Structure formats: C-alpha cells, structure tokens
Fold:
Amino acid sequence: MSFSKEFIWGVATSSYQIEGGSYEDGKGLNIWDVFCREEGKIFDDHTGDIACDHYHRYKEDIKAMKEMGVKGYRFSLNWARILPNGTGYKNQKGIDFYNNIINELIKNDIIPYITLYHWELPYELHKKGGWLNEEIIDWFAEYAAVVAEEFSDRVKYFITLNEPQCFVGLGYLQGNHAPGLKIQIKDTFQIIHNALRAHGKAVIALREHAKKDIEIGYAPTGPMFYPATDREEDINAAREQLFSLPDDMSNWTWNVSWFSDPVFLGNYPEEGLKKYKKYLPDITKEDMKLISQPLDFMGENIYNGAMVYSGLNKEIKFVNRYIGFPKTSTGWPVTPECIYWGAKFLVERYKLPLYITENGMACHDVKSVDGRVHDPNRIDFLHRYLYGVKKAIEDGINIAGYFEWSFMDNFEWNEGYDKRFGLIYVDYTTLERTWKDSAYWYQKVIKENGENIIMNKEKEILFLNPIFVEMIWGGDRLALEYNYDIPSDKTGECWAVSAHKNGDCSIANGTFKGERLSSLWTNHRELFGNIEGDRFPLLVKIIDAKDDLSIQVHPDDSYAKKNENGSLGKTECWYILDCNEDANLIIGHNAKDKEELKQMIDKKEWNKLIRKVPIKKGDFFQIEPGTVHAITAGTLILETQQNSDITYRLYDYDRLSNGVPRELHIEKSIDVIRAPFVEKDLQRKITKEMYYTKEELVTCEYYFVDKVDIAGIQIFRNTSPFLIMSVLEGEGMINHTPIKKGDHFILPNGFGDYTLEGNISIISSGVSK
Structure:
C-alpha cells in the first residue's frame, strides 16, 4: 500500500503572511499589524501590509494551484478581517473575500482546509488581555460560530489552532513574535489552558452551527525525535523522548505532550502535572471534558528532529550532528527520518488519521540568468521527507494528506521577507510570481500520485539480536557487564553473531529486521561478497565462565566431515575480556606422545596432563584443532571461531547435570589430540596513530581478528567480503550511528569507508577474499 487515490496532496499558507490588504475593506487590526510597527522587531522593519498581495491576486494564485495539481489548500482566516473587534460586528466585505476564495477553490476542484487561528489575534481583544483573559474562550467560540455559519455549506474541513507551542512560546514567553511579551512562566500555563479550552469550545460551536457534516482537527507542532537504529531499545528511547517534557523553562512550550495529550487523550501528562505543579492554574474535570471534544483528525507541523539512542545504562542519549550536517537557510537541520517516526509515534499514541499540516524548507532562492529559480536543495528535501511519508503509509500508519509549506514565498514573521519557503518565487517589488523548479517537481509528484518518490538505499549496518545459552558452569556477568536480558544466572554463552542451527541470530534493524542470519546467507549472499560455502563461515561468542569449563578438544575439518555428518571442525581464538587475579587457562598438554597421552587419560592424571597458562585481561590465544583446552572459572572471553558446535569433552570434573554426568568423548578426543603439543607464537602487529590503535591479532585459513581502540575519530576502509564488529568497551558512533558496549553487527559487502568516533574498543573479524 502506498499513496491512495484519496490522499490529499496539498499546499499551505496563512493569512497575515500572504494576504496584504491590511487596512482595506473594514478589516480590524491584529497583533501583527501593530507588532510590525515596533522598530527593530522584524528583519529590516518589514511588514505584512502588502505581503504577496493575495488579497487582490487570489484568482491568479488559485489558478497556479490548479495547474500544479493541488488537491487541498490549507489557509487561515484573519479573525479581524471577519470580526474587526474580535466579537460583535461582522465585516461583510471580509466574509465576502473568504467566500470568493472558497468558491474559486471549488471551481478549480481544490478542497479548502480552513485554519481558524494562525496567530492573527484581533488587536482589540489583545487590549482586553487576549489569551490571558479567560473570556477569550467565549470570544473564540463566537468567531468559530460565525465561520461555521458563513462557510460550512461549502467547506468540510476545519482546523482550530495552528502551533499553540509557537504563538505562546514565541509571542508571550520569549517575546520574538507578536505581541512581543515576556510574561511570567505561570501566566504562560494559564494562556495555554485558555487556548485549549477555547479550542474545545470552538469545536462545539463549529458543530452546532455547521450547515452540513464537517470534520475538525487541530494542528500543533513540537520537537520530533527518531531512533539512531530501529533496534527496539532505540525506538523506545525516541518514543519516550518525543512525549517527554523539557526542564528548561525558558523554552518549556517546545514539547508535544502538554499540547496534544489534553486534546486527544483528555488529560495533561502526569509527568508535567508533577514537574510544573507550581506553575499550574486550576484545572477541573469540566475543563478537560471541554478541551477533549471529539475530533476527526489530527494535524502536525513537522520540520526537523533529533536522533537519540538508548545508552549503556538504558538512558536516552542524543547523537551529535557531524560537522557539515545539512541545514536549511533558517539553520534548521534536515532530518527526513523525523517525519516517518514522528508520524508513527503520534498515530500510535493518539489513534486518529494524521495530516502533515506543514512541511518544507527555506532556501536562498534567487532568479537565475535564465529567468528561472533553481532550488535543487528543496527538491532533495521534499523527496526525502515524502519518502518518509510514503514508507509510513506502507507500514500502515494512517496519513491522510500532506500540505507543503509553503505554496509561495511570504512574510516569515520576525524574519520578514528574508526567508523563502515557497514553491513559487515572489518578487516583492513587482509581486510577480515565478514557479521554482520545486513547483514543477511537486506538480509531477502529484500527477504520479507519489510513485516517483523512491530512494536508492545505502548499505545498512546489520545489527544482531544475540542468542543466550544456559550452561552448568554459567553465571550472570552477561547481564551485569552488558545489560543483556539473559534467561537466568546460569547463562554461560552469548552467541553474538551466529547462523548456526543451534543458535541462529536475527537481524535487529533495517530492511532485513527479523530475518535470521542463516536466511540472509542463503537468500542474500551478495551481502557477504558472494563467497562460497554451504554455511555462514564464522561464529562469535561471549563466554562467561562462573565455574571451570570441561577439558576438551576440537576436531579439524577432515575429521569432523568424516565423523560428524559433514560438520566443520573448529578452529577458534580467545580474547580475554576479564579474569581473576593470578588466573590461568588450560591450553595444551604435557604428554610427549600419543602413548603417554593415553596413559595419563586412563589413569585420570589430569593435573599431570594439562598445561596451565597464566593470563591477564587483554591477552589473546589461538586454539588450533587438536589442542587440549579449557576456560577456567572467573574468566570472560570473546571467542571467534568457525561456524561449528563440535566439542569433544575429555574431562568434566565429575559434575552432574540434571542428576547425571555429562557425556564424555574419550575415544574421539584421543583421536584428534595432537601429541606432542607445539605452542605457536602469535605475532601481534600493532599500529598506533593519533586517534586509534590497531592490533592485528591473528590471520589464519578461516578468519582474521583485529582489535581497534578509538579515542577520537578515524576513517577506515574494509576490503574483506564483510566485517563483523563487537564493541568491547565504551560507546561512540560508526557512520553517525550510535554503538555501545555489547553491540555486535556486520558491515555488509560493499559498505566501503566507515568512520569510527568516540572512546571505544572493538574486536573486528572477517574472512579473506
């Protein structure tokens, strides 16, 4: 499912930003008419007196919408043009103007979406206290009744308030917008409570006075947050952050839940009732019933967001934007992921159809020598964001329409005419309109109903969900060290990267989320360089030995193939993550030949047989087939091995499992043990640079293993068919994707250059070409 035939491809504007005609035909003053007269409040002291002169050119503008193929036009009414004093006397010429717009839209098969309030408060009401005066609840309801009486015979869709976060935060808390006040924080809570009650009463008035069935919505905005990966913990972090409330009271209105929970859920968020208790007005059950009048849809103005992830201790952490991160001419970051995740989280929480009531970008648009306006950055922006909308719809998120902001360049509030958001370029001297390249592009998108919105996907990092195995000798350090959700305090192994039938990891993120690694190996071999083999070649584990493991040995490939139904043998290596003081491992034996080996085994002379090797954190050992070995109590190890689960148990300390001894494999062990034991000296090649240290731990027939320590930022290039990475310590980022201790992932074939940054230690492994 993609864009339906009913999907509303729209554009949006607001009255003060485009209309002009500020002193014509009986219109009353609004707060912006007055605010723009205050010196220094607006860029270059611009005003909206003329703006785009839409008041006289609306037919030309609607004709352009028709040519563009627009299905819906979201515009606002200037309250003071209809009710010059805010209440009482109705200005028929103002009503006629909006009737003319509505009729012209219908004549051109464009659906009107009317916003009652896009910040154009009548100045006469402001003088009476405006939004701080509780009487505004009735004033706004009276205005809504007039709107319904005059326009609802032809208009079906109404929106009460646009971005209350902004008109309160910028107009009354920070003073950057009209009316330019910086009132007490406590009073801003009163204003919001008044505005939301006014919204509720307006909903009642619209329905009571409507001349036919109508649909009503509400268009807030707020900070969007999106996960660094689509692992569940990062998704939960983004969702939680999106609906959280800020501690910074100087910008406290910039949030979602305080403005949306009351309207859609019937209650202010509990977090805010506690956090903001000293600022709150009296809030009654009757207030909440009024505020939460049933709505037909919700709107959300979405422009940008921030990336977050779940940290080492499950705290929410922000991903810093890299140097050169793309921004609009307003300085807003370009974050197309936010529209998908924002829509998803909003619809999940509020369970109404969603319109993206604003989305767009400001560019430094100029007319070129060819007379056209080329704005490739805007096209790229819209393409990326609309791809997010398309993906959301395909994932079952109910998005009913999209209104691009804005149809044409306009008066951008305190920025004056310095910022250009439009699809259509406006020459503010001649008022001539020129279609930008983005207008032609959007025209094509609408004509093709979004079928041309496609993206060439980049190679994805494949994060894996580990498999946990309980063992008689296991413990609980996998939970304590890595915050893994282990099944019990007898968890001995974390199969971190495995496609083995006994423990097949699933992909945690992206296109292949939920698929097993073995399935990717079978069906998407290109991810691994199309290398040969009937199984994924490697298996990476973390082993927590609370008690001693059995003394054991592994066969080589030829023995395993002959005696274990075609299995691979097992060559493996160990990186010591942690161990007790004065710890040792069992690696090798002391028998001079096979005959002596058999005798020691027959006599159970284990202490005489085994060879103990002292160890410390950071040591590394290669365990070849035929090597007697055992991990000892208190040791934590990262193991990289062939993809095999063949182990021959030689001695198990006479332990019982479920009341019986575990099986031993004496004959097979004697077959495969190499005697005498010959120790191999591993040469660890170390490269040290300013921001990283790389140790090449081992390269053998089956794999290579390296350790990299990052303290800063460094670019690397992978030339192997694929690269497995396990984060041992710290947290940082790979290509701006957060990674932390305990993460395991694969860089697929062709991933190319990658950047590691932060303070992290990583073991990487792979196979040669």
User: Anything to note?
Assistant: The chain is about 30% helix and 25% strand. The domain at 464-672 is CATH 2.60.120.10 (Jelly Rolls). The first helix runs from residue 15 to 18. The chain has three domains: 8-447, 464-672, 685-766.
